[in-house]
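## retry 2 of 3
previous attempt timed out at serialization; input unchanged, resubmitting
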Amino acid sequence: MSRGSHARARSPYSMLLGVAVAFALIAGTGIAVAVLAAPGEAAPGWFLAPAAAEAIPAAIPSAESTPSTDTSPSVEPTPSIPATITIAAVGDLLFDLGPRRMIAAKGGRAPLAKVASLLRAADLTIGNLETPLSNRGTPVRGKPANLIFNGDPRGILSLTASGVDIVGLANNHAMDHGTIALKDTLATLDRAGIGHAGAGVNAKAAWAPAIVTIKGRKIAYLAFTQILPAYFTPSSTRAGVASGYSVTKMTAAVRAAHKVADLVIVSVHWGTEQSYTANARQRHDARALIDAGADAVLSHHPHVMQGIDTYKGKLIAYSLGNFLFPYKTVEGRKTFILRFELGPTGRLANVSAVPVYLGEWGAPVVQTGASATRILQKLAAISKPMGTKLTIRAGIGYIKP
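## retry succeeded, writing output
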């Protein structure tokens, strides 16, 4: 896997069920191609045979040639249909504290090992990297020592093994150990082929979208934060993170991204810690981002789940909660993997939530039985005021767009 491209094995739940069959009937040639999804693989979509005019050049008649009497209409090549893309999104990823100790004991892949196959099954997997990945730098001033993080760089192995494609860096911890640790993080992500947005060596880089191409479609990802220490603000010569305080600037960035990409996904680090309810600003700004062209708004920071909403047929997750985090409360350890599909025109479909609990060292573990039901019932309850219906079947929450 590399930044700007995407290819990895799929599991059955992520594939389009059935057989994709395409027929191209061409004058003088009959070609039928059938593509069957093998067990454990996604159906590769529609495959059209090239038109005869392209596959076999027509003979150029000489002056003595007899004119053709064939009056059959020509067959134009059928345009390909853009593929449906499956997306998995998770919340805050912390590679310090418990996860750092876990890495020291069990290696860099360990923190996400129990959810890796599930994340890897999506076409596009997104998370919020809540810490730098560096062993260098100096703790920033002005923050309590217990709120200054620096993740173990070996944590990158968890991200690559889980098929994480893009991470957001726009948060209040991206520069906890200064510019040098941020630069280490950017370099580590680049070497691993993981896209990133929301922080950079200057303002332009911090505001730039990460763009990946999946199944022939360009997806732009933008990240902003409304929880921003003043000394994290970038300039033309200073590193920093992208501020989400101005909805005007955020929406302008979305419109610009829409000009170069087929789909646009946005995350904003926002809201009130330990609150299950999205505040008025979150609701206003999420809708403004969708009005500007965002196809999904997938956010975080409150350290608990917040409701799932839809607006104009687009998806809003106000807080995906924690995902790798030794959080201090039981409620802060309840979370989920949000899965959904974006169709050829950005149409939302098949939205579901896989319940997860952050156990030893704060590592995520998929839940079943009564534990799964409790997490999903909570998500259903906090989503209901938004008009969202979540149905629980076999330990998975299904959300009707």
